[in-house]
Amino acid sequence: MNPLSPITYFLRHKRLSLMLTAVLAMTVAGLYLFIGLAQETYIEPAFMISRYLTKFSLVQPNEVPALAPDTAARILASPDVARVIPQNDLRIKVTNIGGANFSFRLIGLREGDAGTVLAQAGVSLKEGNLPRPGSNEVALSEEIVTALKLELGDAFDRTTDGKAYTNIVSPLRLAGILSGEVRLGIMSYEFLEKSESYRSLKAEGLLVIAKTGRESEMESFLLNSIRNPATKTYTYRSVSEQTAKDQKLLYVLGFPIALLISAAITLVVGAVNQLAFARRLAEFGALHALGRRREWLAARLTLETAGPAVAGWLAGIALGVCGMSAVNAYVYSPRGYDIHTVSGTAIPFILIVPLVVIGSALRWAHRTLGRLDPVAVVDRGQQTMEAEGSKTAGRPLPYSLPRPLAPMTYNRRHSRQAGVLIGSTILLILGTGLLFFLFAAGADAMQPGLNILSRMSAVSPNQGELDAELADRIASNPLVERTIEAYAFSPVKISIPPMFPNKPVETLCVNEEDMGFLVGLYHLELAEGRLPQPGTNEVVISWAVAKNRGIQVGDVIGDPENPVYPGAPALPVPIVVSGIFAPDETIAEDTWFSFMSLEFVGPYRQSGLSLIVVPAAGEKQALDAWLAGEIAGEGRIVLTYANQQAAQ
To answer: Residue 280 CB: number of other CB atoms within 10 A?
Structure first.
């Protein structure tokens, strides 16, 4: 065997090689699990739960009560469309292992259309029966059934789980379990159509099936010819684009962490290599004196690091796959979320580790061997012929050091090794803490939205309009100073990087008198412009929103032809910015208040009016407790500072 081969070195230095391999394997396995589980917990479920859009597209009204009467005829006239199926739907929330909530549609279908949709989606009935016309029965994919912890015959509504079934105001019963490649939930179209309880909760729309081989052309037709400010289209392309955005966010969060961890491991490996090189100084000096060039020696040193690095990388991947398999078998799969144990997304992240380690080893080898003096090594056992008084690692230390066994004395004698250990520890802490810092920063950035509820609360209907007697009951309570009718919608989405690139910001639509009262209650002042005039399409926004999206007084929001910022939502009727509120002097007290005229939005309302409840002086806590205990319930949602802070 070649005595100068790196393999020979590995065999002679098994402990050192195994230590480096183990360190790298654990690092790679940790990164693999972190990225793989993030992908499978927060990105893949969002795609899987909307995968039915690979089989058909969905067209629904946007910010208006219903689709235009001729929409179905226009779609059916397209040469790329095979069939158009009327549908209505309710949304529920499916929570995954990581606590993320994913919106899932229960699609209402007519009796004759259910078989067509199931066949198109590649789904079949596994147990039970399909929903009967006019009944409250539901059929769900088995993965959704497992995730929701339901069994055949179970009834569920908002009293069962207020978070998952907020829109289920009367019990639905699980009558059938579906099996197939996509997640699907179906119920009776007639039941939703005739039920007064669900009149304002259901969403009407059209399922659009493309002709074979014309799927891409149909999507382009829907996106370019049908989609408009009053019409939303959901297609496989739109789902893929959203998944790509989520994937980009994962890269933005993951790469800094991977780089920090790689840098920390590189420092550790470099320190070990320096110690090993010091013990082998005579060996390299002799090899150089015998004619081995510095480049050859540097390549040999790099190969000795590359071997454990590659072995550790492969072992780390194997450990990561085993870890993902174990997590899937014991945690995810039993709850209806089978995950991919081999994660292609993690490869770019974990590839950084061996590349950084090997690259750093090559650079260090060239730098160290560039100062190697073979005569000094052979003759004096030193790396160079530098004078004793020079600042080298081997300079003698005075004998006057106190406490020779103290940690500080060791650090002074071995300052480089101490620096490496401290530096690597700092980088590992930074890598671990960065993710939590980003989550905390995102939560802090959303505080102004929560501050709106610091001086008022709100009662919103889940269906129809709030009962007039209930509104009178709230207004007559001695804890209440004033009640205000309001309608809320979100014409603008702000960017809170990196966690919330499109966070909706609500605009409160109120009458002129109530707008003035709220401006005074929160001590709001205009930085520019004026308040919206009654009955107009004007809006006043907060300084933070204007700054975030570069919006100025006079800008038009909601125009699809000229978006006020890239990706801005389109509105049925564009609105004009008439004013911008000044920021609060105290950042912690700032708000994202935005107002419009209630009279103007009346024809476009999709739900009933909410009731803003302003407490009497000093009674905020007591009022919130009364609203949560006495008013919250079927058909009503109570929003208070406390319950919304807990929800965040």
So the answer is: 14
* Count of residues in the chain: 648
Rounded CA-CA distance 354/503 in Å is 38
Count the alpha carbons within 13 Å of 339 in the hemisphere toward its beta carbon.
Answer: 34
Nearest-CA neighbor of 144 among 124, 174, 118, 119?
Answer: 174
The H or E element spanning position 508 is strand 500-510
- CB atoms near residue 383 (< 10 Å): 22
Separation between Cα atoms, residue 533 and residue 216, nearest integer Å: 45
What are the backbone angles phi and psi of residue 379, rounded to the nearest 5°? Answer: -85, -40
Residue 423 near residue 268 (C-beta atoms within 8 A): no
Q: What separation, in Å, do the N-terminal and C-terminal C-alpha atoms of the chain show?
A: 64
Sequence-separated (6 or more) residues with CB below 8 Å from residue 411: 418
112 burial (CB, 10 Å; 0-12 / 13-18 / 19+) is exposed
For the chain, 648 residues long, the average pLDDT of each consecutive 10-residue run is 60 75 86 85 81 91 83 93 93 80 91 91 94 95 91 90 84 94 93 86 91 91 88 87 78 76 73 66 65 75 80 90 90 80 85 82 74 55 46 48 57 59 61 59 68 89 79 92 92 76 87 94 93 94 92 92 86 92 80 92 81 92 90 79 73
Query: Are 350 and 317 in contact, with CB atoms under 8 Å apart?
Result: yes
Rounded distance between C-alpha atoms, residue 347 and residue 358, angstroms: 17
Q: Count how many Cα atoms sit within 13 Å of the Cα of residue 451 in the half-sphere of its side chain.
A: 19
Name the token pair of 346: 């993690």
Q: Do the bridges between strand 575-581 and strand 526-529 make them parallel or antiparallel, or are there none, so unpaired?
A: antiparallel
CA-closest candidate to residue 455, choices 627, 646, 616: 616
Q: Please report which helix (H) or strand (E) contains residue 494, including its range.
A: strand 480-496
How far apart CA 147 and CA 431 sit, in angstroms, is 32
Do residues 617 and 438 touch, judged by C-beta distance below 8 A?
no
Residue whose entry in the numeric block shows the structure tokens 């090559």: 362
Cα Rg for the chain, rounded, in angstroms? 33
- Whether residue 3 is preceded by a cis peptide bond, meaning omega within 30 degrees of 0, is no
pLDDT value at residue 541 = 94
Burial (CB count within 10 angstroms: exposed 0-12, middle 13-18, buried 19+), residue 204: middle
Cβ atoms of residues 49 and 283 within 8 Å = no
CB contact at 8 A, 104 and 51: no
pTM (whole model) above 0.85: no
* CA distance to 34, 199, 322, 326, 645, per residue, from 341 (Å): 12, 43, 8, 9, 35
118 phi and psi angles, rounded to 5 deg: -65, -45
Provide the greatest CA pair distance for the chain: 102
